[in-house]
Amino acid sequence: MTIPNIPDAQSRWRCTRCGNLTRFDVIREQRANEFWHFDLAGNHIVEDQELVIDELKDVRCRWCGAGAAVELIARIDEE
Ligand SMILES: [Zn+2]
User: Is the overall model pTM greater than 0.70, yes or no?
Assistant: First the structure.
């Protein structure tokens, strides 16, 4: 199965089976180094995060469930 590349400023995903352009289920494998800042009550926020591993594992069409049918296409300028 081929996994499409992640879209950039010039490209987007499209399901070749149903034409969906807007809804996808994305599975990513990530590992992060984070700085957690706790307040005195014990709640925390993540103030800094560095993704050291960020791999796209699968992209599936949200509507028809097709995995291998998602392709990368050029964006059309909307003006
Ligand atoms: Zn689809």
Answer: yes
* Structural domains in the chain (count): 1
Residues 40-65: tens digit of each pLDDT: 999 999 999 999 999 999 999 999 98
From ligand 1's centre to the CA of 63, what distance in Å? Answer: 5
Phi, psi of 38 (to 5 degrees): -95, 145
In a domain, 4, yes or no: no
Specify if 79 maps to a domain: no
R_g (Cα) of the chain, nearest Å: 17
15 Cα–ligand 1 center, Å: 5
